[in-house]
Amino acid sequence: FWLFVCHGARPWISVDTAAEILDAAPRTCRGFYSAEDTSLYATDLFYDWLAWAGEMLDLCHARGKRLVLKEMFDTWSLVASDREVYDVLFRYPETVIPMFATNNAHAPELQMGGMVGLWRAGACRDWGMSSQHWAWNWGRDCSWRLETADICPPDVILRMDLAAASLGCTYFHVEGGQQWLDRDGQLQPEATRHRELLYRMMDRNLLLPPQADQLEGLSPIVVARRTDLGDLRGSQVGTPRNRVGTRLREGLLGVGASMQTVSDGYLPRHAYFTGRYFDGFFPATAYGYLTLVPDWLAGGVPAERVIRTDGGQAEIGGQVIRAAEEPFTLLDALQRAAEELPFRTDERSQVFLSAQRWGDEYRLVLVDPGFLDPEGALVSVRIKLDRPVAEVVDMITGERIAVQHGAVLGPDFVVEVPRGGFRLLSVPAR
């Protein structure tokens, strides 16, 4: 079992009590988890929590246990790039498990991209997803919820978790009371269309947990971020609604209210064609999936080019750019880098594509990126490998899809991604 020990930067137990629990249950207690703490980022209470979390990590590391940190908003991009915070939370890569709490899903592409980046850089051994139907909730001030969670379509939960699994997520947390198993441990009928379906695909080895170096759908561009609070220290800027009027609200990685239209200078607007801050769970990845790392880790991640940023303006190869004013510079960098990907779609094919290398094959996951109004897509996937490929196989239906070799830009194949659905494909690597 895992024990929930802290919420909102207010621990419910002391580190000494945690040690007593591990003494009493040395084999059955797997570890602890703390949730929604970084919403208090930059406040005095947050730094009290940070000291407690550091001591909890010391204890868990010494006992061979794990500490899950289930955090909201853009924590694993913004807060993890604060060196003071990073040095505490990521002192033991084999102990900490950063997790995305999807109940306040502002800029999920920054949150997931940050976790993938930390994982690729060796800052953590695993990362996780809190699979919650609260992702269907929005509020007037980007925090208060509209009570619509129970009408969240199963396809949203399924595609959200599927995209995370394809990018290397190995820890999945289901918020209490949500559809999967009932109180008697029996499967709820609704879950056969999302969480149970995902589990069955994993159980049948259709989805395998990759290592970071097996991911072949990531953009060769890496975003290196450094957060310097300066005069913002002491103010509560962990939640987007409290960033109004600050440099953390605007700019390249500035995050607004979830239903708000993204700013012209917002990086995912150009990288993924996102329209609002909530719709990046499974974004269109014509240029590959962007990973974000703390600035000091950029040298440890394979990258063709690095975009360095403080969250506002950016620098590429020594050239300072502002995405809102110079979008073509940013787009050119993204497009050029994407040319080297083994698999990619064009800008017209709005689809999430993730690729993994598994010995003699590549496995591709294609997901319809539509959130409020999924439409499905007829997708052309270009192949750039060092050997010819005759066909691609659907891993679920067994359908064989012919590869065309007359295209100007290289061999490609066309596949239909159903409305609100996905495809799992196998491509021979040899």
Molecular structure report:
With 430 residues, this protein is of the alpha/beta class. About 1% of the residues have low confidence. The strands form 4 sheets. It has a 7-stranded mixed sheet with strand order 2-1-3-4-5-6-7, with helices on one face. A 5-stranded mixed sheet has the order 9-8-10-11-12. Helix 1 packs parallel to helix 2.
Average pLDDT level: 90
* N-to-C SSE string, H for helix and E for strand: EEHEHEHHEHEHEHEHEEEEHEEEEEEEE
Poorly predicted ranges (pLDDT <50, ≥5 residues)?
140-144
**Tally of helical segments:** 9
The main pleated sheet reads as: 7 strands, mixed
In short:
By secondary structure, this protein is α/β, with parallel strands linked by helices.
Jot down its keywords:
430 residues, alpha/beta, seven-stranded mixed sheet, five-stranded mixed sheet, 9 helices, 22% helix, globular
Topology record:
Elements: E1 2-7, E2 10-11, H1 15-24, E3 31-35, H2 44-63, E4 66-71, H3 75-78, H4 83-89, E5 96-101, H5 108-120, E6 128-131, H6 154-166, E7 171-174, H7 195-203, E8 218-225, H8 267-272, E9 289-294, E10 305-309, E11 314-316, E12 319-321, H9 327-338, E13 343-345, E14 352-358, E15 361-367, E16 377-383, E17 391-394, E18 400-402, E19 412-417, E20 422-428
Parallel strand pairs: 1-3, 3-4, 4-5, 5-6, 6-7, 8-9, 8-10
Antiparallel strand pairs: 1-2, 10-11, 11-12, 13-16, 14-15, 15-20, 16-19, 17-18, 17-20
